[in-house]
Amino acid sequence: MIGVVNWSGEIYMMHLSRRMNSKKGAGGDASVPTPHPLHPRPYADSPHAGSPYAGREQEPPIRREEIAEKPGTAQPYAGREQEPLPGQGKLLQFVLIGTALELLYLVVFALAPLSTINGHASPLATAWPWTLAPSQFLFHVAWSASGEYTGGGIYYLLLGLVLIALSAIYLYAVVRAFRRRDKIHITSRWLLLLLVGAAVFGATLLFLPALFSNDVFSYIFTGRMLTIYHADPMNTAPAQFQRDPYLPWITQPGVPNIYGPLWLAITSLLVGVGNSPITTLLLFKGLALLSHLVNCLLIWAILGKIAPARRLPGTLLYAWNPLALVELAGNGHNDGLLICLLLLATWLLVQQRGGWYDAGAFAFTGLAISLNFVGLIFAPLFTWFSVRNERDNVRVVWGCCWRALVTLITLLIVYLPFWHGGSTFVAISASIDMQHFVHSLLAMVAVPLDWLYSQAAQGANFPANYMQPSSAANTMLVASGLFIFALIYLYLLGKMRRAPVTIADGHSTGGDASIPALPRTSPAPTRDGGPYVANEHLRGDASIPALPDTTPALTRDEGPYVTNEPLRGDASIPALPRSSPASTRDMSGVEVLFTCMSAAILGYVVFVAGVFWPWYILWALWIVALRHFDALSVSVLLLSCTALLTYSLLYLDRWPIALYQPLLIFGIPFVYLIVKRSNERNGLEYERRGKTA
What we know:
This protein is mainly alpha-helical.
C-alpha cells in the first residue's frame, strides 16, 4: 500500500509498509493488511472509503519514540547512523582550497618589494618595517645588511609562477563549483565562507609593502589638491606642487585627473579624514576592499533572483578572483565602486517592474558615469533592455528619452559643483587619450603600421610638413578601431532589442498582447492523470511498489526550487522540492543583456583602448559572474588570470620583445574562445545533418 498525502498542492511520498500480514480472529479479515505503526488508518469518509479500511475507527498515530519503547516492535530507523549535513564535505573542500590560496597570497606579499618597477617603497614599508619581514625571511639573499633590497629578473619570473599557481587553483575551484552546483545544498554558510575568504585574502593584500600600481597615490594627490591646495584637479597637473610629499609616487605627474566628479568628491572626503600617509593609504585601499565585499553580496542577490542554482559558483567567480583582489585590496583601484554602482543598477533592472525601479537603475548608471566614463558603454544597453517589450515606436522613444533624462540629470547634479565653463569641457575631452598605445593589441599593430606609413611617405616623396607618417598611422588605427567597435555595438543593440520579454513567472511583460506567455512546465501525467511513476523500487525490495516521482527535472542552470517549510512540523523530514517558477529560457532576456555587456566591454578593450592595464578586465568580470558558464565566460575568466601576468612581464618593457606581450595576455583566452565556438558550430551542424538524414 502506498500512503499519499495531498499537502499544499504537492504529491508527497510517504513511507511504505515493509510487510503484509493477514489478521485472523475476531473482527479480522484475511484480506485486510495490517498497517504500518507509523501510518494511521484513513477515516471512513476519506478517499479510501471504498478500501478494506472503510468504516473502521481511526487509530491515533504511534510516535517513533513509542515504537522504540515497545520491546519486539519492528523499528524502521534502527541501526541507521546520523547522516552528515548536506554539503558539509564539499564545504570543507573549499575551505582547503581557500587555505592554499592564502598561502600563495603570502608569497605574493613577500615578493612584492622585489618585483615592482617603482623606485620608492610604500608608506607602509617605511613606517612599519615588519611588513618587510616575510620578504626578508623567504628571500634573504636579495636583501643587504643595511636593509636595502634589489629586485631582479628572477623575482619577476618567480612572481609570474606564483600568479600562475594562484590562478590555477582559483580556476579549479570555480570549475568544480559550476560542475557540482546541482549537488550542493546552498545555504548562508556558503555565502559566509566566500565573504570570509575574500576578507582574509583582501586583508593580506591590504598591507602590501610595495604596490604593483601607483594609481592610488594619484587618487590621494587629487584629494589633496581639492582639500589642501584648493585647486581644480581637472585642469591642474600634480607636477605644479613640487614640494608635496606624495609627488615621488606619482607615475605621470604632468597628467591631470582623468576621473569624474563623483570620485573627486570621494577623494576629498577620504583625504580630509586621513591625518597621515599610512591612514590615508589604508582608507583608500579599505574602501576598495569594502566595495569588493559589497559587490559579492549584490552578485549573490542578483543570482538569487535570476538563477538560484548559480549563486555559489557565480559569487565565487568574482569574490575569490585573484585579479579583483590584487587590484582592489592590493592596489586600491576605484573600479570596485564603479562595479558596485553598476550592480545596483543591474539589481533594479532584473526586477523588471519598471517605473521607479528603472528610474533608480538609471540614476545609479548616471553615478557610475560620473565616477568613470566607461559607464557610458552600459547606459544604452540598459535603456534598450528596459524598452525591449514595447512595440509601439512612440512608447519606445518616450521610454528611451525619460531614462536618458534621468541619467543626464544625475550627471548634471554631480558635475555642477566642479564645472568651470569651457575649461572643464576641454579637460574632459583631453582626458580621453587615444594617441598612446601601451600593452594593448592596438600597440602591436601601431608599430608595423607606423613603419608602413613611413615607407610610403618616403617612396612618394611627401614633404615632412605635409604628412607626418606616425600621426597619420595612429589616426587611421584609431578611426578603424572606433568604426569596428561602432559596428559591434550596433549589432549588440539589435540583439538586445530582439531579446525575449518574459519574466520569472512565465508571463510576458509590458503592454504587448501579441507576445504569448510561456507555458508552465509540469511533470508528464500518466494515463490516469496522476504524476509520473518512477520505475525504481525502494532499496531493492521488489515487493514494494514504485514511488510516484514528483521531483522536477534539474535544469543545467537553475535546478529545482526548494521550499523552506518542513512537513507539518516534522523537522526530521526534509523540505519538498517543487518546480521552479523561472526556467533558464524565461530569464534568457537577462542572459542576452549580460552577453551584450560582456561583448561590448571586450570590444572596447580590444578595438578602442590604446592603453591596457590589468584592472580593465574587472569591467567585464562582474558581468560573467552573472552569466551562465559558457565559452565567453571562460574566456573572460582566463583573461582575468593572464592579465595579472602583466606585472611580471613589466621587467621586459625595456626590451623589444615587450611589443608582443599582448599575444600572451589576449592570445590564450581568444584562441580558446575561437576553438570552442568553432567546435560548438560543428556540433550543431553535425546534429542538424543527423536529423535531416
